[in-house]
């Protein structure tokens, strides 16, 4: 496909090209199955428009194998397309472990991107070509939806939780991104672009853009400014969970269950500390739901993930 068809932009990844192939092949199948029906309707309507006596003295001849084949063959073809499309869909939820992780905050009416080294962007996202990229997204206000037509990807961004999507863009260029969920008066202008660069150019862009601190380093500063270290510091006299190595570790709960301390759990523990209370600790942590914005929560989560003993972000 090419950009001369306005509603069908060019493909910027192997995944988008496979989606195009799936759509094209399925369209051919549907036309092949339905065209004979419509053609015969026209033929018979024309041929027998004035009516014709039917000979009913003998039962019509039946070809069982013919009838079975025109039922079974389309059925098997549709099953094949189901398996193909399911494989494509399932792949969206299994990003490579080495994927570059970029945080995204959606708010009326802009997209904010934060790279692991701390570089920030608004309504423009730079990514390296040929390398997997995973976007971890949160909304500051209402439901948004990040849509990149050239990648054939769209993911809702919902308040109160993290959502993610990943891709490997292999064709350098600038591609449109948009919000595909009505989000208020200026929804139509909530857009931007994805800039796919050669790895060397991307590395140069990171260096030229520069930043004073990484996201985790900014989170460390915020951790102290908001008083979190007063309870969670190992030297604190307050009985609170030790955060070192907490990320992706099983956490026993007061309710008797167990939860994995992933990014969503860390976020909920900051904003809704009474929802899942860790076993053996008093429920004394205040909520920061109306104190921190989504960007500050991302910084704190990144800091906790980076503490000694923690695992890589998943």
| Shape by Cα distribution | elongated
Rg on CA atoms, Å: 28 Å
Count of domain modules: 3
CATH superfamily of the largest domain: Cupredoxins -  blue copper proteins
The termini sit apart by: 34 Å
Low-confidence stretches: 1-5, 310-314
Secondary structure category: alpha+beta
Mean pLDDT: 87
Major sheet: order of its strands? 3-2-1-5-8
For the record, the CATH architecture of the largest domain stands as Sandwich
Structure summary, number of beta strands? 12
The percent of residues in helical segments reads 25-40%
Describe the SSE topology.
Elements: H1 14-47, H2 64-91, E1 100-107, E2 110-114, E3 120-122, E4 124-128, E5 133-139, E6 144-148, E7 153-157, E8 163-167, E9 173-179, E10 191-197, H3 199-209, H4 215-225, H5 229-232, E11 250-252, E12 258-260, H6 263-271, H7 294-306
Parallel strand pairs: 1-5, 4-10
Antiparallel strand pairs: 1-2, 2-3, 5-8, 6-7, 6-9, 9-10, 11-12
Helix pairs in contact: 1-2, 4-7, 6-7
Main location: membrane
Protein name: Cytochrome c oxidase subunit 2
InterPro entries: CcO_II, CcO_II-like_C, Copper_CuA, Cupredoxin, Cyt_c-like_dom, Cyt_c-like_dom_sf, Cyt_c_oxidase_su2, Cyt_c_oxidase_su2_TM_dom
What does this structure look like?
The protein has 314 residues and is of the alpha+beta class. The protein has three domains: 1-43 and 63-91; 100-209, Immunoglobulin-like; 215-306, Orthogonal Bundle (Cytochrome Bc1 Complex, Chain D, domain 2). Helix content is 35%, strand content 20%. The chain contains seven helices and twelve strands. It has helices spanning 14-47, 64-91, 199-209, 215-225, 229-232, 263-271, 294-306, and strands spanning 100-107, 110-114, 120-122, 124-128, 133-139, 144-148, 153-157, 163-167, 173-179, 191-197, 250-252, 258-260. A five-stranded mixed beta sheet has the order 3-2-1-5-8, with helices on one face. It has a five-stranded mixed beta sheet with strand order 4-10-9-6-7. The chain has a two-stranded antiparallel ribbon with strand order 11-12. Strand 11 (250-252) and strand 12 (258-260) form a beta hairpin. Helix 1 packs antiparallel against helix 2, helix 4 (215-225) crosses helix 7 and helix 6 (263-271) packs across helix 7 (294-306). The longest helix has 34 residues, at 14-47. It starts with 13 loop residues before the first helix and ends in an 8-residue tail after the last helix. Residues 1-5 and 310-314 have low confidence and may be disordered. Belongs to the cytochrome c oxidase subunit 2 family. Residues 97-208 form the Cytochrome oxidase subunit II copper A binding domain.
């Amino acid at each position: 496909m090419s950009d001369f068809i306005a509603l069908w932009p060019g493909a910027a990844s192997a995944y988008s090209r496979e989606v195009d192939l799936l759509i094209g092949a399925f369209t051919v199948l549907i036309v092949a199955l339905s065209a004979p029906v419509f053609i015969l309707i026209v033929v018979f309507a024309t041929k027998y428009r004035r009516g014709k006596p039917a000979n009913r003295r003998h039962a019509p001849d039946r070809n069982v194998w013919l009838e079975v084949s025109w039922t079974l063959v389309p059925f098997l073809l549709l099953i094949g397309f189901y398996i193909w499309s399911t494989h494509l869909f399932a792949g969206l939820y299994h990003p490579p472990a080495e994927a570059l992780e970029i945080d995204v905050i959606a708010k009326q009416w802009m997209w904010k991107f934060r790279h692991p080294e701390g570089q920030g962007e608004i309504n423009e996202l730079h990514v390296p070509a040929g390398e997997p990229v995973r976007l971890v997204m949160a909304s500051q206000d209402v439901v948004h939806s990040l849509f990149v037509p050239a990648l054939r990807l769209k993911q809702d961004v919902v308040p109160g939780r993290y959502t993610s999507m990943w891709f490997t863009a292999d064709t350098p260029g600038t591609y449109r991104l948009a919000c595909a969920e009505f989000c208020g008066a200026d929804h139509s202008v909530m857009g931007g672009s994805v800039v796919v660069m050669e790895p060397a150019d991307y590395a140069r862009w990171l260096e030229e853009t520069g930043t004073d601190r990484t996201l985790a380093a900014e989170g460390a500063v915020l951790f102290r400014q908001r008083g979190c270290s007063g309870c969670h510091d190992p030297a604190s006299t307050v009985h609170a969970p030790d955060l070192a190595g907490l990320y992706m570790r099983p956490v026993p709960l007061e309710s008797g269950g167990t939860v994995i301390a992933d990014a969503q759990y860390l976020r909920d523990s900051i904003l809704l500390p009474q929802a899942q209370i860790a076993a053996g600790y008093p429920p004394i942590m205040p909520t920061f739901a109306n104190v921190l914005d989504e960007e500050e929560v991302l910084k704190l989560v990144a800091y906790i993930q980076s503490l000694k003993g923690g695992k890589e972000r998943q």
